[in-house]
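Lab notebook, bench 4. The sequencing result for the construct came back, and we need a structural model before the next group meeting so we can plan mutations. Quick request posted to the team channel:

Model the 3D structure of this chain.
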Amino acid sequence: MSEMLASKQASKADTESETGVQTEQELILLCQQGDRECFRLLYQRYQQRVRSTLYQLCGKALLDDLVQEVFLRVWKGLPKLKKTKYFSTWLYRISWNVATDRRRKLAKVRDKTSFNEQYADKDRLEYDKDLSNTQDAPDLMHLHYQDLVQRGLDNLSFEHRSVLVLHDLEDLPQKEVAQILDIPVGTVKSRLFHARNLFKKFLQQQGISF
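Done. Here's the predicted structure in token form:
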């Protein structure tokens, strides 16, 4: 947690020193005006978070392309963003849309089982070391076995996986998750309850007790 805080503080300091921008909203406003240097700084600040979310939702395959697609949509959509204080929520929404589009395309050529078998093992070996650290999700992030977490996520439906990733792994409040997924808060709570139960059952099957 201390490393994450230090990283965020360093990112903010870099932004201020390179552009003179004092707040993130000012940085976003400059991006809306077409400032590519400010957008580069915005990318540096958020790309690891986007990468982590996309990996947990889709796996390693074409991850770089998916991250690029997210920020391409961000660049094109920024001029239309009216409430800049909700940029983070908007960014997560775009990331989720890109992940959804990716999975829909995959569904047309292979079912979920074959997709998991082809990519899951490779994903865990190549990318576990790059997962960003998050806080306040003790049932998941204190396991120290990222491959086990990813296998558990692979066993969930995309709907359950999405709420678990955004709330427990990305540490977003339920209200913001509801905004990102465009569903009622009550639905978030219901899906989160079922997702946690399914995930817990999977871990118990792997010999992890609670």
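Confidence is low (pLDDT under 50) at residues 1-19, 127-139.
Will bring this to the meeting.
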